[in-house]
Amino acid sequence: DGLVLIAQRHRNDTHGWKWEFPGGTLNRDESGEDGIVRELLEELNIRVEVVRYFGYYTEPPIRVQYYLVKYISGDIRLVEHEQVAWVAKDKLQEYDLLSGDRIIADKLRSL
Q: I want to staple 16 with a disulfide (CB 3.0 to 4.6 A). Which of 11, 69, 73, 105 is the partner?
């Protein structure tokens, strides 16, 4: 239905209260595709299918990879976030997104 899932970082985390596209750190020898599937299951209790790679953002020493995923199943359970929101692509910039996620949000609007 064209909505995008974003999550608000926990108040005690780095960049607390900021909104982000959920994900996380890759395990050693884990592909980006496997990592996003695992992280969304661990952090939000949802199963997803990777549609495609969507780009990256670098802020040394961190490199964030973005994937478009399709929600498959699961009831969202908050483990590491304050809240989540399903947002229309053209409304993403109304949220206080992390800097790299703002760039990706602009790119999403063109889809």
A: 11
